[in-house]
Amino acid sequence: MKSESLLFGTKEWAPHTFNYISGCSNDCVYCYAKEMAIRFKRKSADSWRIEEPVSLEKRSFGKRNGTIMIPSSHDITVSNLDKSVEVLSALLESGNNVLVVTKAHPRCIDRLVTVFESHRANMEIRFTVGSANSTVLKIWEPGAPSFEERLEALRRAFDARFVTSVSCEPLLDEDFDTLYAQVAPFVTTAIWVGKMNAAYRRVRVNVDGAFDERYLDALVASQSDEKILELYRRYRNKPDIAWKESIKKVALRHGVWSDESANGS
User: Fold this and answer.
1) Given this model, what pLDDT does residue 11 score?
2) What is the pTM assigned to this prediction?
3) How far apart are CA 100 and CA 85, in angstroms?
4) Helices marked H in the chain
5) Quick one: which of 14, 78, 177, 252 is 20 to 30 A from 233 by CA?
6) Assigned CATH for 3-261
7) Residue 89 CB neighbour total at 10 angstroms
8) Domain segments of the chain as ranges
9) pLDDT at 114
10) CB contact at 8 A, 138 and 148
């Protein structure tokens, strides 16, 4: 496999995406969607956290070939939960397979697993968790649920017999061992692992200079090729680990990538 042929971003997970909110109250400082919104003057660094419904008048909810990732540029939050249920209902009633990706609050998951119990076969819920330390999460994702809330939400989806997975992209500290041990018992498919992409550029744009870059320096250093290769070698034979493109590139560059370690790819 050549690095040029790797899928990246949302395409690693699904050929289609569906969004219905502009902005996100999680206000993650590394968010690619926030950076794009600021660059194209749709939002400012301050207004991004305000969630605004977008018009769906001309959007199709019909059956598509391949999974639909929903959402990809915002989250399912308590404040937009009713709209999220409405959109998911329309897509699922058309026979689509959906991948729900969320930094989920337990209240949101309780609603989703109750409303969509009959659609379990067509729905996977992927929980984004980059650290098992809520203090670390608060630095990078100030408006998002704590680790304890996300773990509880994951457990509830698992107990409701939904297909569950975890996205550890981006990793937000070096203690992946603790994170893995906590989430693995409640994952039915894969735990995806990835680096923070374009870290300095995105954070600087997204926070308009109001961020302690010592955190950035430490995180980027923790994701050096040497440290990523160490992590890759430790977990490459775990059947429940899947590697995002950012880590595949490091392994390819150093000649240690193996397709046998490419679960989910």
Assistant:
1) 85
2) 0.94
3) 11
4) 32-39, 81-93, 106-115, 134-140, 147-159, 176-183, 199-207, 213-222, 225-235, 245-253
5) 14
6) 3.80.30.10
7) 14
8) 3-261
9) 98
10) no
